[in-house]
Design goal:
InterPro entries: ABATE, ABATE_dom_sf, Znf_CGNR. By secondary structure, the protein is mainly α. It is 50% helix and 10% strand. The chain has one domain: Jann2411-like fold (Orthogonal Bundle), CATH 1.10.3300.10. It has a two-stranded antiparallel sheet with strand order 1-2. Strands 3-4 form a two-stranded antiparallel ribbon. It is globular. The structure holds zinc ion (2 copies). The site of one zinc ion has 5 residues, from β1 and β2.
């Protein structure tokens, strides 16, 4: 593990969120889909279950995707992560509870709006990445027909393909065919 468990899980959750509208259309179209996403990553706390909440998560998704796209421009990315920390009023405090008995940070009150709590977690995980000089781990899939993002947590930062479909495999097959046809 390169970063703390919290950070890695949160970065993965961010990538999955961003990819919900980058592969085969919109996969976060309704509140049911939002619940499924949130449950799969164990998000707790307030849920309004209304259109405004879904809309706010869509806006957060767009904003996060924007950070991935400028990850090679550290100064700009830092500016956007700082803006996200400020807009979500991230306020770290130490806590522990039965599901997570080790002391860890929570960044917002369970009563804060969903997007704000999610945004604060994402911003803090991105801040960890930036502090480690590892912003380039935020990548866009290298398959030519894929816009999905990935967070490359491999030790040597060699990851190139998203894990939403089969991009890595498809590219290996394509490269293999290419080599064969050039013989
Ligand atoms: Zn906790
Ligand atoms: Zn891909």
């Amino acid at each position: 593990m390169i970063f703390s468990h919290d950070t890695e899980l949160t970065l993965r959750a961010a990538a999955v969120l961003i990819n919900t509208d980058r592969v085969d259309g919109e996969h976060l179209a309704d509140l049911h889909a939002l619940d499924e996403y949130l449950d799969s990553f164990g998000w707790t706390g307030r849920r309004d279950h209304d259109a405004a909440e879904l809309e706010s998560v869509h806006r957060l998704r767009t904003r996060l995707g924007g950070i991935w796209e400028i990850a090679d421009d550290e100064a700009r990315a830092v500016g956007q992560v700082n803006a996200l920390l400020a807009d979500t009023r991230a306020a770290p405090w130490l806590t522990r509870h039965p599901e997570m008995p080790e002391w860890h940070l929570h960044l917002a009150s369970v009563h804060d709006p969903l997007w704000q709590r999610m945004g604060a977690e994402f911003a803090m995980a991105l801040a960890d990445l930036i502090r480690a000089g590892d912003l380039r781990r935020l990548k866009i899939c290298a398959a030519p027909d894929c816009e999905a993002v990935l967070v490359d947590l491999s030790r040597n930062r060699s990851g190139k393909f998203c894990d939403t479909g089969n991009c890595g495999n498809r590219q290996h097959v394509a490269a293999y065919r290419e080599r064969r046809s050039n013989k």
